[in-house]
Design goal:
heterodimer; A: 13 helices; 82% helix; 0% strand; B: alpha/beta; Rossmann fold; Alpha-Beta Plaits; 2 domains; 7-stranded mixed sheet; 4-stranded antiparallel sheet; 12 helices; elongated
């Protein structure tokens, strides 16, 4: 039996339906964009457009960094629940008794966290760019659009989300408690954000080549994380709590 | 069948239906090709052996009861046959496919398992739950299949209900519908009536009986003995090792000698003389509070002879009836043997 997108779609569809009816998930998904659009906007409008250029760049970098917290935290919470949550609800075993392959299950779970994260993170960034173009001082707007800020944001949003998702699923597959899984997952998803923070705050001066290089490195880590998580996914352990 | 000499294998005879019990009993087990063949299956978790050297086969269309106390290895066996966990040793063929990690998806596509907990997505409707599983089995004509399975469990009018709003019994029926979606060659039911009230239990029993009539092979684990006796063609009793396997009436015959209960208004003055008058029929006797229990070779022959002897002794007979040993008696006899063996 080969890999089936029908089975991936069945789980993905179910997950998205489940999110829509889960007040906690809806609340998180609604609150996070609001929170992470307000703070960057404040940074944007209090920045002194005629002041020090380095200081302005740091302000802009900080604004953009706020928005990169979305692809780290949101999928981290969702993916940390993905396996241990189903096990707690007793819904994991019936799914594992179907012909679904572990790769299909994992891809479906990852997409279920990835798709809403990407939609919300890019939407927030789009609103931010539009607000900057329409309402910010022209110097600030051009500083945002110039350089590598937009590129970094576009490249690192899915890659940070990917890392957070695989860390979250890995932790979830080994945890016995949802809350512990969410805390560990959050911690594990932070390291790549440090690199992005150093770029955003101009500690590392980012050229286009460096941004693409770092993104490629994070992509490689994401793919490696996927391989590790797939290898860790053990039906017997998930069902019995013991290694197979 | 079993290579374990401790296993008392039941014969394949059909037996004659007896009154009372017989009406509830399932028809003789089908003799078709095996749906499950298990050979010397063992599963060890660390230091603990969950299942040891278990061998049996289940015919296509048979309802096979798997009984045992908590921790006996029933669920481990089901999970192993359902490819959720790997055996430590031994082999099996499930739905015609050898058990191996490579064959896991192929086996799972031909079987269905209903775990003890229904495991439904409570925020989704009945229909959405079934649509999800239809996708996992890559089924054609999804809506038609869902309608048919909901019809089979009498839930057509609840398709749009959220599963979280259903009672425990209804959830169990949805789980059963889910398990039937892919027309499984073998249906594993793990404690399907656990925690249900008597009405819901009866409904699940009726559903299983209707599946039996349709020729679905069912592997039923339970520790409700009346459930097994009522629904199963054959039963196996497991307590880490397979203790016994066969039709419930055969197991009774194997474990208990046939006997007749005699109730009298007053005990006999000289029972030895009365019962000694028919030595070719009565093999032994013991006194009970209301009369006597006599071990006999054939109750049908013994009862009239006994009645004549008692009338001859001027005894006031209240009743003469064959002793009935339930499957529970068989079960307790075997489990008690195990407890005694362990305490030695």
């Amino acid at each position: 039996m080969s890999f089936s997108w029908t089975r991936v779609g069945a789980i993905l569809h179910k997950e998205l339906r489940d999110y829509r009816r889960n007040r906690f998930v809806i609340g998180t998904m609604a609150a996070m964009p609001v929170l992470f659009i307000i703070l960057p906007m404040i940074q944007l409008f209090v920045a002194n457009a005629t002041g020090n250029t380095a200081h302005l760049n740091t302000r802009i970098g900080l604004s953009l960094l706020y928005m990169l917290v979305i692809p780290v935290t949101m999928p981290s919470v969702l993916s940390a629940y993905s396996v241990v949550g189903e096990r707690e609800q007793g819904t994991l075993e019936p799914v594992l008794t179907t012909p679904i392959r572990r790769e299909e299950f994992l891809i479906a779970k990852a997409l279920a966290a990835f798709v809403p994260t990407l939609v919300i993170a890019y939407a927030v960034f789009g609103i931010f760019l539009a607000a900057a173009a329409l309402f910010a001082h022209p110097v600030i707007a051009s500083a945002i659009y110039a350089g590598t800020h937009v590129l970094v944001q576009l490249l690192f949003t899915p890659l940070l989300a990917g890392w957070a998702i695989w860390v979250g699923i890995a932790v979830s597959a080994r945890s016995a408690d949802v809350r512990a899984a969410q805390q560990l997952s959050m911690l594990g998803s932070l390291p790549p954000l440090i690199i992005v923070a150093l770029m955003s705050l101009n500690v590392i001066t980012v050229s286009t080549a460096l941004a693409i290089g770092l993104a490629a490195a994070l992509l490689a880590f994401d793919l490696l994380a996927w391989r590790v998580v797939a290898a860790m996914f053990d039906r017997e352990r998930l069902v019995t709590g013991r290694r197979g | 069948m079993s290579g374990d000499p401790a296993v008392r294998e039941g014969r394949d005879e059909t037996g004659t239906a007896r009154t009372g019990q017989a009406a509830r009993r399932p028809p003789p087990a089908p003799a078709g090709p095996a749906a499950i063949e298990v050979s010397h299956l063992t599963k060890v978790f660390g230091e603990r052996t969950a299942v040891s050297d278990v061998s049996f086969s289940v015919a296509g269309g048979e309802v096979f009861g798997f009984l045992g106390p908590n921790g006996a290895g029933k669920t481990t066996t089901v999970r192993t046959l359902g490819t959720l966990i790997a055996p430590s040793s031994g082999s099996a063929i499930v739905a015609g496919i050898p058990l191996s990690p490579k064959n896991g998806p192929a086996i799972r596509s031909r079987i269905s398992m209903m775990p003890e907990s229904p495991g439904l997505y409570l925020r989704l409707t009945v229909l959405e739950n079934l649509q999800c599983f239809a996708g996992l089995y890559k089924l054609d004509d999804v809506r038609g299949r869902i309608d048919r399975t909901l019809g089979a469990v009498n839930l057509e009018d609840r398709a749009r209900d959220q599963c979280g709003s259903l009672s425990k019994g209804l959830r169990q029926r949805v789980a059963l519908a889910r398990a039937l979606l892919n027309d499984p060659a073998v249906l594993f039911l793990d404690e399907p009536t656990s925690g249900l009230d008597p009405v819901a239990t009866r409904e699940v029993h009726e559903l299983i009986a209707s599946l039996r009539e349709r020729g679905v092979t069912i592997f039923l684990t339970t520790h409700r003995l009346e459930e097994a006796e009522r629904l199963c063609h054959r039963v196996a009793i497991l307590n880490t090792t397979l203790r016994v396997i066969g039709r419930p009436d055969e197991l009774r015959k194997q474990l208990f000698r046939r006997s007749v209960d005699v109730r009298l208004r007053a005990l006999l003055d000289d029972p030895k003389a009365v019962f000694g008058a028919v030595p070719e029929i009565i093999e032994g006797w013991e006194q009970t509070p209301s009369g006597y229990t006599l071990t006999v070779s054939d109750p049908d022959l013994a009862a009239p002879a006994l009645a004549r002897a008692l009338v001859g002794a001027h005894a006031d007979i209240l009743s003469i009836a064959e002793s009935h040993h339930s499957l529970e008696d068989v079960y307790l006899e075997l489990i008690d043997e195990d407890v005694e063996a362990k305490s030695r």
